[in-house]
Amino acid sequence: CKGKACKKHTPHKVTQYKKGKDSLAAQGKRRYDRKQSGYGGQTKPVFHKKAKTVSLGSSLMEQY
């Protein structure tokens, strides 16, 4: 379009339906990604799985 018509306010497009509420997982993922982005590195503790230690039972020790 040319001329003065373009400089007028345009009516705002309104959608019929609102976006449904996100699942908590989706919301959390979005928040986490936002938090992680940018400078500052890892922001939440990374879970390091510990090695399982098994105590030698008394039944094994009696054989020797």
Automatic annotation (TrEMBL):
GO terms for biological process: response to antibiotic; response to cycloheximide; translation. Keywords: Antibiotic resistance, Cycloheximide resistance, Ribonucleoprotein, Ribosomal protein. Coiled coil: none annotated. Transmembrane segments: none annotated. GO terms for molecular function: structural constituent of ribosome. GO terms for cellular component: ribonucleoprotein complex; ribosome. Residues 1-45 are annotated as: Disordered. Gene3D superfamilies: 3.10.450.80. Belongs to the eukaryotic ribosomal protein eL42 family. This is Large ribosomal subunit protein eL42. It comes from Naematelia encephala. The lineage of its organism: Eukaryota, Fungi, Dikarya, Basidiomycota, Agaricomycotina.
